[in-house]
Amino acid sequence: MTALFALATSLMWGLADFGGGLLTRRIPALTVVVVSQCIAVVVLGAVVLATGAWGEWGPRLWFAVGAGLVGPVAMLAFYKALALGPMGVVSPLGSLGVAVPVGVGLFLGERPGFAQFAGIAVAVAGIVLAGGPELRGAPVRRQAVLLTLLAAFGFGAVMALIAEASSTVTGLFLALFVQRVTNVLAGGAALYVSVRRGAVALPEDTGMRALRSALPALAFVGLADVAANGTYAMAARSGPVTVAAVLASLYPVVTALAARGVLKERLRGVQAAGAGLALIGTVLLATG
């Protein structure tokens, strides 16, 4: 079940990233993050009420609060790094956040077998290559590298924290709700500060009309991200974190394939090679 839940996580994260990427072409990125998470809060709040998950309050929810605080910081650092570019270097480096939950698993005593170690190495290489790294002629500013590494650490920390935020299914609903409320508060504060400094929260030409027309897509992005966090927590609880984290981090492959299928973007040779390596790593991890 670990492999199944983790692969479902990578599918939903990949599609959420693809949808979010499309939306940020029309709407400021921070607005996309805040609005999509607001929708997720409403849906999760209804789920928590319906399942009686309020009774699961406990100290473990501090992990969810931590994940909710770290997530927006990581996302903002990643967007800033992408703006500094080049994207072909920044995007693959952001995938290295998988090292955090893998390191946590090893620290807690997990010892994958030889086939799984090989699968981790092959899959991580595939994840990085699937982002289409620019291997030549790509000057990189030090600030972009530092911001990307900060974002990668943040993404990995969110995976590690959310895996510890609950011990039951209903508790997981409550943990995800707390995480998203924290996301909205932190992201909303950042959006407020950004607007006060002169940035725009909505497209200047279409304004609220653009936001209303994008609500279904925003809902998909927010709910897919929530579902991915949930399935990752299930994967980490049902099997080795080292395996769950790597399989869940295959989402750049999904994003690249979605761009190929929907936008007809051609995969570069290095991306195709990365997708192939990721597939081989997946097989080794699932059967090791």
UniProtKB/TrEMBL annotation:
Concerning Gene3D superfamilies, the annotation shows: 1.10.3730.20
Ranges in a coiled coil:
none
Note whether Membrane occurs among the keywords: yes
UniProt keyword annotations, A-Z: Membrane, Transmembrane, Transmembrane helix
Transmembrane segments annotated in the record for this chain: 6-23, 30-55, 61-82, 89-108, 114-132, 144-163, 169-193, 214-235, 241-263, 270-287
Q: Which domain of life is it from?
A: Bacteria
**Occurrences of domain EamA (ranges):** 3-130, 144-286
Please give the Pfam families that the UniProt record associates with this protein: EamA (PF00892)
Q: Name one GO cellular component term.
A: membrane
The family line of this record is: Belongs to the EamA transporter family.
* Protein name from the UniProt record: EamA domain-containing protein
Please tell me the species this chain comes from: Streptomyces silvensis
